[in-house]
UniProtKB/TrEMBL annotation, chain A:
Keyword field: ATP-binding, Nucleotide-binding, Translocase, Transport
Keyword Translocase listed: yes
UniProt-recorded name of the protein: Phosphate ABC transporter ATP-binding protein
Source organism of this protein record: Tessaracoccus rhinocerotis
UniProt key word Nucleotide-binding: yes
From TrEMBL, chain B:
Species annotation: Tessaracoccus rhinocerotis
Protein name: Phosphate transport system permease protein
Localization of this protein: Cell membrane
Keyword flag Transmembrane helix: yes
Membrane topology, from the record: Multi-pass membrane protein
Length: 259, 325
């Protein structure tokens, strides 16, 4: 299942610090949306507000609405734990659980909430998820080995397998390739192409070629001035953002003429 | 550090000079000093441990080799066995009470309490570690023992059919269970303080990985914090256990000792511990008796060594999955 995400008047704070101002956008299902912008402009912060991971930091909160197929994730009666089941996340640095085997890593999310899964079901799920992350052929003979023994790129694909094992509606990726070499990066990018067949994918990246290669739509974030909150400057089809942006700031950033 | 030459000079200087610039410098005084200090500290530990071992073995041998007839406290192994049992039994009970509570407090401080509460709480825990054991002993006799006696009576009346709680209940409340409770309070701050540090070391990345999968806070603790901290928790417990095994004063004051081996927790006939027995018997010991008491100390030394080696083995068995790589 793949769902549409609408942000309405979203403001994001870290305690007293106003990090992001007034974001309004609609993220399409079965598509890849890229967030670009310079460091500190709030793109990762916006990403983390989409699965309520932002509020894990003490004092951090969000105002406005984030609608997942019309349901407000920030409504009073919504349990953040349930939100995170539906909206999976892949982090900047690969973070498989070091104390678990490859197999247990894939099943980590499935086993939460005391869910009982039979051996046969879990075997199938492990294979399906690892195949979905293009990792099966590399690890099928060593599923009981520690996940931390894999290469960086393999670990990141293991994290993707772990995220898709719980069959979420949305997958968020926070600079998933920034710690990887070019070959591993290519593998992840190919995977992102396949993932959008089934999921809504949102990816934060510092690499503009990557945004151009993998995304259907691109959102450019920027600070008006130092010390000001970050803002969504321009949002549209990737093709248009990269070739015919409407805003001067977007064009400056895309072409590298950026202070 | 090497002398500063501009790049232009460096290329034009003769080979001998540039070779000189790369030569091993003997002038790094700080490095040499630090290496000597740290190596020296390491050796000191070994020397102290060896000195203790030599002392224990040297003075134990006469008692171990003597004819049982000549020993003031009778045959050595028959003499030491109840104390060895009492030591391990009391320490094990203390750990049974202290470890879950300590881990609970440490988790509360690191993952549940607001920061200000956690800081204040941390100081109180550290303060508890600074209370002298004789004070804990007095507290055990005067406060805890009378306090727990009604509980003991209730236990005997209702659960007396379990051998652990068999009667008759001690009239003073000064039983092995009371002593274990006092020991538990004494080792609690050590284990708590160490576990707290261990839990704080959990990489944020792993905690977030777990939360992002939809884990509740408790699930996150079970999935990321506890597995990652296991070697640290074991080490913390070993330090606590070391104190519980060797604690002398508090046990000597609280326990009304006997020389038996049984698992009854509530009676006035309790197995004494090795350390406590040495403290109680030493003032009146003479001749071979001194050697015999020191030999019991050697047994305690060996018990501690074996327990610690066991813990190391447990940790190393799961090294691959420790997260250290």
């Amino acid at each position: 299942m793949s769902k549409r995400i609408e942000l309405q008047d979203v403001d994001i704070y870290y305690g007293k610090f106003h990090a992001v101002r007034q974001v309004n956008m609609t993220i399409q299902p079965r598509a890849v949306t890229a967030f670009i912008g310079s460091s500190g402009c709030g793109k990762s912060t916006v990403l983390r507000s989409l699965n309520r991971m932002h509020e894990v930091i003490e004092g951090a909160y969000v105002t406005g609405q984030v609608l997942l197929d019309g349901v407000d994730l920030y409504a009073r009666d919504v349990d953040p734990v349930r939100v995170r089941r539906q909206v999976g996340m892949v982090f900047q640095r690969p973070n498989p659980f070091p104390t678990m085997s490859i197999r247990d890593n894939v099943l980590a999310g499935v086993r939460l909430n005391n869910a009982r899964v039979s051996r046969k079901e879990s075997d199938e799920l492990v294979e399906k998820s690892l195949r979905g992350a293009n990792l099966w052929n590399e690890v099928k003979d060593r599923l009981d080995r520690p996940g931390s023994g894999l290469s960086g790129g393999q670990q990141q694909r293991l994290c993707i397998a772990r995220a898709i094992a719980v069959s979420p509606d949305v997958i968020l990726m926070d600079e998933p390739c920034s710690a990887l070499d070019p070959i591993s990066t290519l593998a992840i990018e190919e995977l992102i192409h396949e993932l959008k067949e089934e999921y809504t994918v949102v990816i934060v990246t510092h690499n503009m070629q990557q945004a151009a290669r993998v995304s259907d739509q691109t959102a450019f974030f920027n600070l008006k001035a130092q010390g000001q909150p970050g803002e969504l400057i321009e949002f549209g089809d990737t093709e248009k953002i990269f070739h015919n942006p409407e805003e001067k700031a977007t064009e400056d950033y895309i072409t590298g003429r950026f202070g | 550090m090497s002398t500063s030459t501009s790049p232009a000079e460096a290329t034009s200087t003769p080979p001998e000079d540039s070779r000189h610039a790369l030569k091993h410098s003997s002038k790094r005084f700080g490095d040499t000093l630090f290496k000597a200090l740290s190596t020296g500290s390491g050796i000191t530990i070994l020397v102290i441990l060896a000195a203790v071992a030599v002392f224990l073995v040297g003075l134990s041998v006469p008692a171990l080799l003597a004819d049982p007839e000549d020993l003031p406290y009778g045959e050595f192994w028959a003499y030491v066995l109840p104390f060895a049992f009492g030591t391990v039994w009391a320490a094990a009970l203390a750990m049974l009470f202290a470890v879950p509570v300590s881990i609970g407090i440490a988790l509360f401080l690191t993952h549940y309490a607001p920061r200000r509460v956690a800081t204040t709480f941390g100081y109180i825990i550290d303060l508890l570690a600074a209370v002298p054991s004789v004070v804990f002993g007095l507290w055990g006799i005067n406060t805890l023992a009378p306090l727990v006696r009604p509980l003991f009576i209730w236990l005997e009346a209702n659960l007396g059919w379990i051998p652990l709680f068999a009667g008759p209940v001690s009239g003073t409340g000064r039983t092995v269970l009371t002593a274990a409770l006092v020991l538990a309070v004494m080792v609690l701050p050590i284990i708590t303080a160490l576990c707290r540090e261990v839990f704080l070391q959990t990489p944020r990345l792993h905690e977030e990985a777990s939360l992002a999968l939809g884990a509740t806070r408790w699930e996150m603790i079970r999935q990321a914090v506890l597995p990652f901290g296991t070697p640290g928790i074991i080490s913390a417990c070993m330090l606590g256990l070391g104190r519980a095994l060797g604690e002398t004063m508090a046990v000597a004051m609280v326990l009304s000792p006997g020389e038996t081996i049984h698992f009854k927790l509530l009676t006035s006939d309790n197995p004494n511990t090795i350390a406590s027995n040495i403290a109680l018997a030493f003032p009146e010991a003479y001749g071979l008796g001194v050697n015999q008491l020191i030999a019991t100390g050697l047994v305690l030394f060996v018990i501690t060594l074996v327990v610690n080696m066991g813990a190391r083995w447990v940790i190393s068995r799961r090294r691959e999955f420790s997260g250290a790589n």
